[in-house]
Amino acid sequence: LMRRDDLPLLFACVEHQAWVKAIESHLRGERDTPPELDPAQCHFGGWLAKKGMALHGAHASFAMVDTLHQHIHTLGSELCCLHAQGQGAHALERVGELQALVQALLEQLQPWTHRQRPKQRRKIPE
């Protein structure tokens, strides 16, 4: 069961998959502007820096999650820059890299969302 404090993890999964689709739409010319590219400005980035750090900062994968999140936004920015420089086809060829980074992020988040509930002691009938 997911704790209320961890709902941003679920939102991060959905938001980053939608974010990649928005990047792809921008690269295809179906969207005039890219989505927010600054990792500190996305909801998950803000949560990760504050509440996520408090809840999961001691988790072995916290540094990896933070690094992957930074890389996702860096690559998204890079692809949008390529598009702006007239290299949209090359940028589109690299969307698979972005999808792979998001998948890696989701895999790192999975243990955070599937924490064991504390076991309750059974009452032994008298």
Please sum up the structure shown.
This protein has 126 residues and is mostly helical. The chain contains 5 helices and no strands.
What secondary-structure arrangement, pairings included, does this model have?
Elements: H1 7-27, H2 43-56, H3 62-84, H4 88-93, H5 95-113
Helix pairs in contact: 1-3, 1-5, 3-5
Outline the structure in words.
- The chain has 126 residues and is mainly alpha-helical.
- Helices cover 66% and strands 0% of the residues.
- The protein is built from five helices and no strands.
- The protein has helices spanning 7-27, 43-56, 62-84, 88-93, 95-113.
- Helix 1 (7-27) runs parallel beside helix 3 (62-84) and helix 1 (7-27) runs antiparallel to helix 5.
- It starts with 6 loop residues before the first helix and ends in a 13-residue tail after the last helix.
- Mean pLDDT is 86; it is low at 116-122.
Note the beta-strand portion.
Answer: under 5%
Major beta-sheet overview? none
Terminal CA distance reads 31 Å
**Assembly status:** single chain
- Which structural class matches the secondary elements? mainly alpha
β-strand number? 0
Summed over residues and divided by their number, the pLDDT gives a mean of 86
Descriptive labels:
5 helices; 126 residues; single chain
